[in-house]
Every structure is written in C-alpha cells, then in structure tokens.
Amino acid sequence: MSGTLSFPSQAWFECMAEQMRGDEPRFRALGPVDCAMIVNVDLEGGRSTLHEVIFRGFGVHSVRELDRLEQAPDSHFVIAGPLEAWRDMLDNIHARNGADLEHTLNTLTLADDPLRVSGPDQLETDAFYRYNETLQRFFDGAARVETSYPVSPSRKVA
Amino acid sequence: MAQYSPTVQQGLERMFEMTRGRFDLGWMDSNPVGWGHEAEPGPVGLGLRDVETGHYARVPEHGSSHGSMAPRGSFVPAETPSLDMYDLNDRSEVWSDNAALLYDEAVTRQWNSVTDVPWHKLEKLPDDIEKAVCQMCTNLTEVEFVAGDMPARWMCRINHDFHEVKLFLATQIMDEARHLDVFRKRALANGGGLLMASPGNEALLAAILQAPNYTTASALMHIFGEGFVLTLFRTGEFLAPTEVEKTIFRLCMQDEARHVAYGVKHLEYFLARHPERTEEIHHILDLGEEAIFRLTLEPQTLEPRAILAGKGVANIQLGMSKLAFLYNKQVREYLHRLRIAGLDRVPRLKIPQELPSLELAA
C-alpha cells in the first residue's frame, strides 16, 4: 500500500496510473482505451480543481493539473462534482476494495447528481460509456491507497 | 485410366508441367505498387489502421466494379468473375471514418458471458425485484439481436472495398449475440425465468429491418435505437440489484457506445455528401420515435424499470418519476448525437423532449 496521498492532486492520480501499470494483465484483458478524462472537483469556497488523465493503450499516458478547461485537448469528457461526492466514492472503494452497487461511476453520474459527465459534444461524452469498465477499475485503485482530503468545515463539525 | 472432367484434366496436366519445372510465378510481380509495404505496430499492437496506409489506405469513392471478394489493394485479374451481390458500392452509403478504430477496439475489448460475469454472486431477491429484472431481461433478449439481424442483412451487399465497415459490422453482430445470450442467462439463472414478450417492440424492430436503404436503417438503429438502449444500459447499471446485473450492464454499455459512435459518424459522412437526402433520414426517425413511444403503453416494458428504480413495487410511482428524468436524458443525448451528424432534429421531433411527470415528481 502507498503512503497517504491527498485527493485531488497530481500525485494521487499518478498513483492510480502507477497502480494501473502494476495491474496491466487485468487492464489488458479489458482492452485498450483512448480518451482524455478531466476530473473536476468542486472544493469549499467556490474553488475547484481540474486534473487531466490521458489514457492510451492499456494504461495512463499522462497526468497533469489544469488551470482551466480550455487547456484540455479538444476531445475529452469531464466528470465533475463536489469534493464530498468524490470522497464518498473513494472512501467506499477503499472500505470495500472496490465500489459497491451505489458507488460506481455510472451510478453516481447517471442522474447528474452527485457527479455529472459532460463533454464538448455527445460523442466525447460517449467515450465515458465506451471505456466505463476500465475507468471504474482505474478509480478502484483507490482501494489500495490511503487518501486524505482538504479539510471541509462540515466534516469537522461532524 | 479414370476419366475426369475437362477442368480436372486441365489441372492435372498443369501439375504435371510443374513437376517438370515449368512454373508461372507471374503472381510474384503482379502488384508492384502494393509491394514493399511495411507497418509499425501501435502501442497496443498491430491495429487495422496501422496496416491500412499508403496504397492500401486508398478507399475508392465508388467500390470496385469487378464485384468480387478480391481484397482492396491487390491485383485483380481481368477474368475475375463478379459475384453479382454487391449493390452498396458508393462509399458514402456505408462509410464512417471511425470504422477501423472501432473494429480494433471491438476485437480487443471483447468479453464473454461465461467467465466475465460474477454469476456466483447472484443472490435471492424479493419476488417483485426478481420479476422486474426478469421482465427487463425478457425485453432486452427480444430486442438486442435486431442489431445483429440488421447488419447481417446489409453486410453481404456492401462492396468488398469497404472492408473496414464490414469488419466493424461483424463485431457488432457478435456483440449483439453476447447481449442476447447474457440477458437470457440472467433471466434463467436466479429462480425466475422469461416473462412477457413485447408486441410493441416488434413495430420498432420491423421499422429497422424493413428500412428502404442501409443509411436509413443505420440512422434508425445505430443512433436512435442503440442510443436509447445505451442510456437504458446505463440505467440498468444504476438500477441493478446485485453486482451480477451491474457487471452485465456495464459491459453491454461499452459495446453499445461503439455502435452508436459508428452510426453518428456514418450519418455525418453521408449527410455531408448527400444533404438532399436529409428528408429520408427525418422520415425514418419519425417512424422510430412514434414506435418507441408506443412502448410506453406496454406495462411489460415500463413497469419493471419503474419497480427497479423505486426499489420495489411499493415505490413504483417514485420509480416512474426517476424514469422520467432518464427519458429526458435519453432524448437530449439522442438530439445531441444527431446534431453532431449534421441533423437538426429538434423542430421535427415527434415525441416530447421532456416528460410532464417530471413536473409532477418535482
């Protein structure tokens, strides 16, 4: 297991990419991927983060933090939502060694709440559906990582 | 000595000549323009797009007139007989720029219902939920293979020069076989069984199978039908009561998205070259939209989904309001895909963009 990594951060996504590399036979069995995923996390105080993960072949080609969405390649899709929703998903994955029925990417995005998927056009958004199993396994890598989050006032009170 | 037909006799004489060292070897230099070709494997292996370069990438606007199965890029002897079966000879009638990519993706992202679904995780479900799952699977088993029958009907008419399209359609047929198979298996595997077939679905299936030409059939099936089914699969994953259905729907969703991607890019390619045929596409979509809306009148189609969305027959009304949201999403995505293909369907839409029950739910 890796040390504690903060989500969202470039290091966290690079760790997921590393896990994907370490589990290549499993991802190879799922088939190749060719897409750019942008993860948008809405933080407290109206701030948000953007991380671009480019998938190529059976793994991640690159990870970088973006200042704004316009820096992303033309072909991309965005998964966006508040930190709380991301945290619930990742904590669930970590606790169960994979997402349970209520916390898969598709379940969390289908009703556009708490997460939503969008893209410059519908075909780009459809890439999220086309590669969904691989993307799910990518995030399931969180099961093997201790993840920390920016402190949220609501969590502190709780 | 045995008597053979003239053809066999001629063959024997030719073989006898060869034993005396008299070979032709003309085939060796038959295709100088196609010789010396090399291909570089991409990061995942040697894909179709990696080999279809240079001479071999030249896809004619009008398929070869020899009408044979001779491979594109080979030397075709003048005496090659026509098979007289290819009448989809214009590239615009079938082509999609992503066909080769989608073929490579399809063959490398294959799965199977025998070992890739965690069947051992099936569990006893409440009766209403099991019946709803089984009815939904009955429905999907009925409709899925239209997307196998439809390409099969047209594939043998597509000129062999457009092999990328034929190969992609072949993967689609296999995908649909798997879908039929996996939904039937799920219905039969957990103490339930198949329930009621859907006469309403047959009208839509007939419209797809009886479409007057390939492009209208493709618009109706790949973009309209499979687009709606894609959202239905997403919904199925969302509604799934166990990991088994969740896995099934997620895997099927991936396949369906490839089919939709082909359909959108084919229609885009076609309409860019034949804007005068826009009305044909609108007309077939008119039929499809009305046919699919008639399904809402069938209890066996809508009610199981509402039960699953409400997590039980006691909450079926709540489930209906959730389904209304999903219907709106289905229509929105359908219209967006058509817009990418170059078709503004909004003014012609025959069905509501939003269901009024959403307002009731709110």
Report on the architecture of this protein.
The complex is a heterodimer of chains A (158) and B (362). Chain A is α/β, with parallel strands linked by helices and 158 residues long. Chain A is built from seven helices and seven strands; from the N terminus they run E-H-H-E-E-E-E-H-H-E-H-H-E-H. A five-stranded mixed β-sheet of chain A has the order 4-3-2-5-6. In chain A, strands 1-7 form a two-stranded parallel ribbon. The longest helix of chain A has 14 residues. Chain A starts with a strand and ends with a helix. The model of chain A has no long low-confidence stretch (mean pLDDT 93). Chain B is mainly alpha-helical and 362 residues long. Chain B is 59% helix and 0% strand. In chain B, helix 9 packs antiparallel against helix 13. The radius of gyration of chain B is 25 Å and the shape is elongated. Chain B starts with 5 loop residues before the first helix and ends with a helix. Chains A and B meet through helix 4, helix 5 and helix 6 of A and helix 4, helix 9, helix 10 and helix 13 of B.
